[in-house]
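Readers of this paper often ask what the protein records in our data store actually look like. Such a record has a labelled line for the sequence and another for the backbone structure tokens. Nothing more is needed to write down the fold, since each code stands for a local backbone conformation. The remainder of this section carries one protein's record, kept here as part of the documentation.
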Amino acid sequence: MAVRILLADDLSFMRMVQKEILEERGYDVVGEASDGLEAIEKYKTLRPEIVILDITMPNMNGLDAMHKIFDIDSKARIIMCSALGQQQLIVEAIKAGVKDFIVKPFKPERMLSAIEKALK
């Protein structure tokens, strides 16, 4: 059975690129969210094995959503996605328990290696 993944990014283009990369490799993108609040709700209902969360999103950012998801499921496997220049936020996310982070723009191989790391 394919690994189930939830994508959360406010840019639909980014979600589309990520989804294409993942589905080509046999992963199952079970949901997409355009902000942190939507990511939390979709996590509750879909219970994916992995969540890829962008840090900068409207309504609720990825860090706040990460904390809420960890409140729901302390074993959640979260990978943060960020733009360059957000090192402080990345450090905070790692201390909180995320499995890995991807810096945009990223190569497909980097995203796939983050997923493999999260699954171990």
